[in-house]
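User: Design a sequence. Structure:
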């Protein structure tokens, strides 16, 4: 079955989403993916831009080292919400 409700992002790098908190910062990992680091440069997880029919969403993810895949923590309309999920989970 084909899902017609999702859209894809163009293959261009997006600018880093601005964060209101100074507790974390982003480091680009790919065109639509950033590592979320705390003040001591410890990786908290990843922030990915994903396309939605209503606009761009921000997906909080964590890398599962044993399988080499990302595990979704949640999807949000604001980058700050996705980052705070990584901070507190």
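Assistant: Done.
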């Amino acid at each position: 079955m084909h899902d017609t409700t999702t859209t894809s992002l163009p293959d261009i790098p997006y600018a880093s989403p601005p964060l209101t908190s100074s507790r974390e910062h982003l480091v680009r990992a790919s065109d639509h993916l950033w590592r979320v680091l705390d003040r001591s440069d410890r990786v908290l997880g990843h922030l990915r831009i994903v396309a939605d029919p209503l606009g761009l969403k921000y997906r909080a993810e964590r890398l599962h080292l044993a399988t080499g895949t990302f595990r979704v923590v949640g999807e949000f309309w604001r980058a700050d919400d996705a980052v705070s999920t990584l901070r507190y989970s």
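Residues 35 and 46 are 5 Å apart (CA to CA). The first strand starts at residue 24 and ends at 30.
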